[in-house]
User: Fold this.
Amino acid sequence: MIAVATGVGSVFMLRDVVSGEMAGFAYPAVAFMVYAFTVVFFRYQLGYGEAQLKGKNRYITLGVGTFIITWLMALILAYTLF
Assistant:
C-alpha cells in the first residue's frame, strides 16, 4: 500500500517539476526516501527487532523486492494514465 501511494503520489507531485533525465533520478530517489523512512519507523517506533524479524538486518531485505516491484508498477500505471 505504501509503494502504491509512493508511485502514484510521486507522479502527481513531480510531473510538472521534473522532466526528461531528471525524472529518471527523482522518482527512484523519492521511493528510496520513503522506503528508508518506513524501515526506520518500523524498526525504532514500532519496536520490531531481530527476534520478531528472525535475523539481523532482515527488516531491510524483507520487503524491498515487493516494494520495488509494486512501486514500479504503480508509477508506470499512473504515468501512463495521467
